[in-house]
């Protein structure tokens, strides 16, 4: 599976988090309490690899991993396909468009608010 954010490949510690596309150098800020935090959600930056749909991907925090996993689960439910070839996330202001291409070239798109971080 290839993950693209605004046309840029992401998913490892150098290219960035699979959900927000930021890496430790470009996607963090130092909070007043001295904690390194994600620019997008403000959660403490952890930086870890986790397997999603059979591929190890890099995430900046647990919330971004959970949200990405939920996106993949929704796509699998909608498409009925468990093998994803490309996931492309286009971020524009407060909205994101998620386009999935499955192994059989079937495409699915979802439009949703950018900050859809859910609790589970």
UniProtKB/TrEMBL annotation:
Pfam families referenced in this protein's UniProt entry, alphabetically: Ta0938
InterPro entries: Ta0938
Name of this chain's protein: Uncharacterized protein
Organism of provenance: Vulcanisaeta moutnovskia (strain 768-28)
């Amino acid at each position: 599976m290839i993950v693209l954010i605004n046309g840029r490949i992401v998913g490892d510690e150098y290219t960035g988090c699979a959900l927000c596309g930021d890496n430790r150098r470009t996607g963090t800020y130092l909070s007043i309490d001295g904690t390194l935090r994600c620019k997008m959600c403000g959660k403490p930056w952890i930086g870890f690899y986790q397997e999603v749909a059979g591929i190890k991907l890099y995430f900046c925090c647990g919330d971004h991993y959970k949200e990405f996993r939920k996106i993949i689960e929704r796509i699998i439910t909608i498409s009925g396909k468990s093998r994803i070839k490309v996931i492309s996330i286009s971020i524009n202001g407060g909205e994101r468009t998620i386009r999935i291409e499955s192994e059989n070239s079937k495409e699915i798109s979802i439009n949703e608010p950018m900050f859809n971080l859910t609790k589970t």
